[in-house]
Amino acid sequence: MSEKRIVTISRQFGSGGREVGKKLADHLHIPFYDKELIELAAKESGIDPELFEEDQGKIGKGFQLLNTIGFSLGSPITGISEMSLSDRMFLIQTEIMEQLAEKGSCILVGRCADYILADRDDVINIFIHADMTDRIHRAETDYAIKERNMEAYVNKIDKRRANYYNYYTDRRWGAADNYDACLNTSTFGIDGTANIIEVLLKSNH
To answer: Does a structural domain hold residue 1?
Structure first.
């Protein structure tokens, strides 16, 4: 891409949002950050990477925060020691996402990226959803998840994502007016959805 553009992707669990983002990044030859963001945040902060999982389910297990937090990408965050561990991790990810957006075009999946980068004019925000049948199928086949009640499990993950998003923003997760486009992979497929986003990028200069 000749012009810098940042794509944020929020997604329902099992909708294929990560796959859409990865395919788009590969086609546009730009960096892609999902789990990669967790690894980067953990490396830069010294916090155990398990604690950065978006569902926040592992907070409080007693992993240790390093006494000194510094960043190779920028300046250390001041006043961080007074915050809760969850808030520290959110701030760390915020700092890293802002720095990545400054560096160049990229695709950021989840973690309130649309909210964090809301003041930029080079960002397009996408929400990916899908029919429940397809989401369950993807969870079982692609993610190898086996639960007695798969629909309840899928909804539980979405609830965790919504709680995280709603807690750290003044918005409601999944609400259409938070995004520039909401796309259904059950209708368009993974490739088709990625192609639509690419068209939107080209038409939205």
So the answer is: no
Say how many domains are in the chain.
1
> What are the pLDDT digits (tens) for 41-95?
667 666 665 666 643 443 333 333 333 334 444 444 444 455 677 788 888 889 9
Q: What gap in Å lies between CA 75 and CA 192, rounded to an integer?
A: 40
CATH of residue 39's domain is 3.40.50.300
Contact 34, 109 (CB under 8 A): yes
Determine the structural domain holding residue 33 and report its residue range: 6-203
Of 127, 112, 98, 101, the residue nearest 171 (C-alpha):
112
> For residues 56 and 50, is the Cβ–Cβ distance under 8 A?
no
- pTM metric for this prediction: 0.82
Distance CA 81, CA 84 (A): 8
